[in-house]
Specification:
It is built from nine helices and six strands. A two-stranded antiparallel ribbon has the order 1-2. Strands 3-4 form a two-stranded antiparallel sheet. It is of the alpha+beta class. It is flat, with a radius of gyration of 22 Å. The longest helix is centred in the N-terminal third of the chain and has 20 residues. Helices cover about 45% and strands about 10% of the residues.
């Protein structure tokens, strides 16, 4: 039996097992749902089941975490199923990877640590962010001030935004102006001062690890 045949069968069994864990039939898992069964694509689209295929950005941050744990760029990219070229292209805006001068090694560094106000109203403090996501959060907090002062449209552009932290965790931001006002009104002066100070930080080290290129 060839290795390709073994790999195919192993992948088939993995998908069948995953289908059982999700409560799907074998027919649904094969992509041939019966007349009385919903298609997997419809279930994913409506959110009944999660889409387990990782996006390119998710694979990018998986690779970044791999590098941070000591893997080489080539090894981390292979494990995350993303090319080194794609990692470098995505990093142009994010500015996470930094080559150590004179060495075939990297350091991984965040751009800033900012608070994040999640869609369900949780205020998370000191979240490490790359340049692109730090910029998004900075713009978000500026928009919250405008919204708090009465411009209810200020947060419209953040409704469907997904923010990634340096670990690849994702966040949806609070865009309900009523909920925002309620949270701001409940904040103490000390809490407000703390989150204002958070935006004064710049280029904090997230995690620095050397690895072979």
């Amino acid at each position: 039996m060839s290795s390709k045949t073994r790999d195919y069968k192993a992948e088939y069994q993995r998908r069948i097992q995953l289908a059982k864990e999700r409560g799907l039939s074998i027919a649904q898992a094969r992509g041939h749902a019966r007349k009385n069964e919903a298609k997997v694509s419809d279930l994913k689209r409506t959110g009944v089941i999660d889409n387990t295929r990782k996006t390119t950005l998710e694979r990018f941050y998986q690779a970044i975490n791999g590098i941070a744990s000591g893997k080489s760029l080539s090894k981390a990219s292979k494990d995350a199923h993303i090319s080194p070229t794609t990692i470098k292209n995505l990093d142009v805006e994010r500015h996470i990877l930094h080559r150590i001068t004179g060495k075939k090694s990297w350091k991984i560094q965040s751009n800033a640590h900012f608070p994040i106000l999640t869609k369900d109203g949780k205020l998370l403090k000191d979240i490490p962010l790359d340049r692109k996501n730090a910029s998004l959060i900075g713009r978000y907090w500026n928009a919250t001030r405008v919204a708090y002062m009465g411009d209810t449209s200020a947060l419209d552009g953040f409704t469907n935004l997904t923010v990634f932290d340096m670990n690849g965790n994702t966040y949806r931001l609070l865009t309900s102006v009523d909920d925002l006002i309620s949270i701001f009104d409940q904040m103490s002066d000390a809490d407000r001062d703390e989150y204002e100070r958070s935006f004064a930080s710049d280029q904090r080290a997230f995690r620095v690890l050397n690895h072979a290129a």
